[in-house]
């Protein structure tokens, strides 16, 4: 009993000293090593729509995954819609269908900026990506996304748009927020070459980042660059009729993703060489992942 009291007294003294000198007090074993400690997910928002697979951080610090789509029900109350979630040691939802070795095989000459760790760190922003549908569908979607990124960046070589003459054209002054970073600041950046001030504004709002004011963040932070590409892939239809994500998970085929990304300039026979470049990369990447590419490859 006396020994226990001494240990308790010493523990209290250590905590008091740590507080006095500005150091964090020692945490319990559970607090130090819980599997959710490395998770990265957006905060839950009441009333916001969540698709199946969405991962959120609740107000109590815990993480929850949507088992059923819902309009922002409370995770600690609506147990049918939400289940507690843990992450792997890398801080991203585990089980990404592309391994680091396969990623390196896909992009043998990539720019060191485009790291595999940057990609996996970005996955929590859109947890439905490459996790929806059958195992075949998941691999096909990952291959489709990376194939389009391959084409847009010359094999993950280019971080920014190479035609600098285009730079001043991406500022739409008719938008109420204008171009606070400058007339020529909103050129293409990242794996799917995010461009135009309104796209930087929309992507930044969705990701909780001030990309309108600091578009250079996309070319300086690998995770942010990948997140902007996933933002477009999962939420934008571009010149197409659906998002690339929906095209793949609903069986519309790789060709429909091309239409959603650059269809107005490439599809319908306008630029068959560009389409062929994307399709060839997709076929190669599905081969690396050991999955059939499916039909409807062209647009």
UniProtKB/TrEMBL annotation:
CDD domains: chitinase_GH19 (cd00325). Keywords: Disulfide bond, Plant defense, Signal. Disulfide bonds join 171-179, 267-299. SUPFAM superfamilies: Lysozyme-like (SSF53955). GO terms for molecular function: chitinase activity. The keyword ATP-binding does not apply. One of its GO terms (biological process) is cell wall macromolecule catabolic process. Residues 1-20 form the signal peptide. Residues 98-299 form the Glycoside hydrolase family 19 catalytic domain. InterPro entries: Glyco_hydro_19, Glyco_hydro_19_cat, Lysozyme-like_dom_sf. The active site is at 152 (proton donor). PANTHER family: CHITINASE 12, CHITINASE-RELATED. This is Predicted chitinase. It comes from Allokutzneria albata.
